């Protein structure tokens, strides 16, 4: 979490830094700050608790002149979100300013040693330790900034993407990364840096993704230099971005989340394009590694949050269609579970951002143990996309709303295609299933468009539930993960407590909660377990609970029992979570809006979780 931005060139940097921070606000919005070096060699640092717009107000009457600067938007880890703990942090003698994304694990030990040497600390952050350490080394060893940064980073244990400026070398920014992302944009007469490419795209499409343990020396008017852990020059691989500014704007919608819900018609088209061909699936990542997929004894899916829910659906898909045993693990648990992994295993890492720290750590562990690692990511060029052996992008474009919507449907669609592609290779998928499922995949964008017509009804329905404190979500089979995801969407953005449960398990506990104050959302498309879920609905109704049921068109039975029904088009069971997720997303969205919540930036959350 946390977002960092930097600029060095001939233009005034303040507006560029602020615009960049707005783009990165999805990474954290506890506080924001800028450090600017002006032509008189003055280092001005302004910081403010709260969002980037609070920082903008704070800076209205300040001197923000200068053409070199760094900036930060924070998701608090060490120290509460206040002005003092906000970045940039400044060294004791006031010469250096530093922004940081990540966590310095040994900061306490380093801090103690620095205090013994006379350093005075202002904040409770781990970051301040780093800037003090760099200054201490620089003064003590009488060395250059780059030498001091290199040595400081050798002493640090943890994860970081940093940018440092120094009053004594006003034409330079030093940036470095280990386990937290950093992208450098190469303009004609300016260089940009940021946690992802979104703050850069307005100015240049030429970028360099810094690798772990690399340090960049960015000098005004000079070509970029990058050195690796051995202090040798690294090869500079300039990539061209395929991102447009319009993808980063709300396009007339009141919130990014609503825009992203509606975009699913188009994003699924992009996700499917070129991959369904003549009733078969063509995934280059699978074809290029056909031996690994043919011979795999087991697949382990690792992910976090919504991506983990997509993974649960992926497990059903791959087991049903490709007949390979699949396990699904929270990446954060997997990495510390001493897992049994063999070279015959395939590990699939699912991640929208491609930067989730736990998922990255799970990947390194799997690679160490010899597994073939396949990525299902959205952000092109992200750390996970680069750390995996191969993979399939979901291609749904930038997702900015903190609650994941279009990435979830993209992930499930890719997992369905992946299951079919593996099934084709292993000969486990019948022609009938292949024809039926690929045809349905091609129909998904149109079916989502139809499902979005429920929006008005859901908006009306949401008025009934604005003041409810708890919700239960039930589903079975492929739609048990839909229940988990529906509950997660509601709790993340409306702060209403919601629990997802397998419908049949309800009688082993949650049924005790049911009364007229607890609404239950039941995902009940016409599938093999339809009769069973009807009994579950009756059990809720018999105890005075109200039921909102998501059903297939024409389901008269459930319509006659449930309080409200939301009708979605029928698709093969294995694809039903994709369609069912639309009303679940809209319900959470409208309830949160009615409650006056900030749906795009819910409290305490961040979109990209680059810390443990
Ligand atoms: C955060 C986000 C979620 C996301 C999860 C995993 O919690 O708010 O939307 O599902 O991280 O992120 P990833 O980028 O790895 O999918």
Average of pLDDT: 95
Q: How much of the residues is beta strand, in percent?
A: 15-25%
Overall geometric form: globular
Could you tell me how far the N terminus lies from the C terminus, measured between alpha carbons in angstroms?
A: 10 Å
Unreliable spans are none
Given the structure, what is the number of helices?
20
Order of adjacent strands in the largest pleated sheet: 3-2-4-1-10-9-11-14
Give the biggest sheet.
8 strands, antiparallel
The distinct bound ligands, ions and cofactors come out as: 6-O-phosphono-alpha-D-glucopyranose
Write a brief caption for the model.
The chain has 612 residues and is an alpha/beta fold.
Keywords:
single chain; 612 residues; eight-stranded antiparallel β-sheet; six-stranded antiparallel β-sheet; binds 6-O-phosphono-alpha-D-glucopyranose
């Amino acid at each position: 979490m946390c977002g960092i931005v930097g600029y060095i060139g001939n233009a005034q940097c303040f507006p560029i830094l602020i615009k960049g921070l707005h783009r990165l606000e999805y990474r954290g919005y506890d506080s924001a700050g800028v450090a600017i070096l002006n032509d008189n060699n003055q280092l001005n640092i302004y910081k403010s608790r709260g969002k980037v717009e609070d920082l903008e107000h704070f800076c209205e009457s300040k001197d923000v002149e200068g053409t070199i600067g760094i900036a930060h938007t924070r998701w608090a880890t060490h120290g509460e979100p206040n002005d003092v703990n906000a970045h940039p942090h400044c060294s004791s003698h006031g010469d250096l300013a530093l922004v940081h994304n990540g966590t310095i694990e040994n900061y306490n030990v380093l801090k103690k040693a620095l205090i013994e040497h006379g350093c005075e600390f202002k904040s409770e952050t781990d970051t301040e330790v780093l800037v003090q350490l760099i200054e201490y080394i620089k003064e003590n060893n009488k060395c250059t900034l780059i030498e001091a940064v290199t040595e400081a980073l050798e002493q640090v244990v943890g994860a970081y993407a940093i940018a440092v400026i120094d009053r004594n070398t006003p034409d330079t920014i030093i940036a470095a990364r280990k386990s937290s992302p950093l992208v450098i944009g190469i303009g004609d007469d300016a260089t940009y840096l940021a946690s992802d490419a979104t703050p850069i795209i307005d100015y240049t499409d030429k970028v360099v993704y810094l690798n772990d343990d690399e340090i960049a020396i960015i000098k005004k008017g000079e070509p970029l230099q990058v050195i690796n852990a051995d202090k040798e020059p690294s090869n500079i691989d300039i990539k061209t971005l395929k991102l447009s500014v319009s993808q980063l704007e709300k396009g007339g919608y009141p919130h990014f989340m609503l825009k992203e819900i509606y975009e699913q018609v188009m994003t699924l088209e992009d996700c499917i394009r070129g991959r369904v061909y003549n009733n078969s699936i063509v995934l280059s990542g699978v074809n290029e590694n056909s031996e690994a997929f043919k011979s795999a004894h087991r697949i382990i899916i690792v992910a976090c949050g919504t991506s983990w829910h997509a993974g649960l659906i992926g497990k059903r898909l791959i087991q049903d269609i490709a007949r390979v045993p699949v396990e699904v693990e929270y990446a954060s648990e997997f990495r510390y579970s001493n897992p049994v992994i063999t070279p015959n295993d395939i590990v699939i890492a699912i991640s929208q951002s491609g930067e989730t720290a736990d998922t990255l750590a799970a990947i390194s562990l799997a690679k160490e143990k010899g597994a073939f690692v396949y990525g299902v990511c959205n952000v092109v060029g992200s750390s996970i996309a680069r750390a995996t052996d191969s993979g399939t992008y979901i291609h749904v474009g930038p997702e900015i709303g903190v609650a994941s919507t279009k990435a979830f449907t993209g992930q499930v669609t890719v997992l369905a295609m992946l299951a079919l592609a593996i099934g084709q290779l292993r000969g486990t998928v019948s022609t009938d299933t292949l024809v039926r499922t690929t045809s349905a995949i091609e129909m998904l964008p149109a079916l989502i468009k139809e499902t979005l017509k429920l929006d008005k009804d859901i908006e009306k329905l949401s008025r009934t539930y604005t003041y409810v404190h708890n919700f239960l979500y039930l589903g079975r089979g492929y739609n048990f993960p839909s229940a988990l995801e529906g509950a997660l969407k509601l709790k993340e953005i409306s702060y209403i407590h919601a629990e997802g449960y397998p419908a049949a398990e309800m009688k082993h506990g949650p049924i005790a909660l049911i009364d007229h104050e607890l609404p239950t959302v039941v995902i009940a498309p016409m599938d093999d377990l339809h009769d069973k879920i009807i009994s579950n609905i009756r059990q809720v109704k018999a105890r005075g609970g109200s039921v909102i049921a998501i059903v297939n068109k024409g389901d008269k039975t459930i319509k006659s029992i449930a309080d409200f029904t939301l009708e979605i088009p029928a698709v093969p069971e294995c694809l039903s979570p994709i369609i069912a997720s639309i009303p679940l997303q809209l319900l959470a969205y409208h309830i949160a809006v009615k409650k006056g919540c900030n749906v795009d930036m819910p409290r305490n959350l961040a979109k990209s979780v680059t810390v443990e």
